[in-house]
Amino acid sequence: MGYAKVHSVALLGVTGAAVVVEAHLATGLPALVVSGLPDAALVESRDRVRSAVINSGESWPQRRITVNLLPAHLPKHGSGFDLAVAVAVLAGAGAVPVDLLRRAALLGELGLDGTVRPVRGVLPAVLAAARSGLEQVVVPVANAAEASLVPGVTVRAADSLRALIDFARDGVPLRPPPSVSVTAPPAGPDLADVLGQERGRRAIELAAAGGHHLALFGPPGAGKTMLAQRLPTILPPLDDDAALEVTAVHSIAGTLPAGSPLIRRPPFQAPHHTATMPALVGGGSGLARPGSLSLAHRGVLFLDEAPEFNRRVLDALRQPLEDGEVRLHRSGGETRYPARVQLVLAANPCPCASPEGDRHCDCSPLVRRRYLGRLSGPLLDRIDLQVTLLPVASAALLTDHAAGEPSTVVAARVARARAAAAARWRGMGATCNADVTGAALRDPRWRLPRPATAVLAKALDQGTLSARGHDRVIKVAWSVADLDGRDRPGAGDVAEAFELRKGALR
Question: pTM score, two decimals?
Answer without folding.
Answer: 0.90
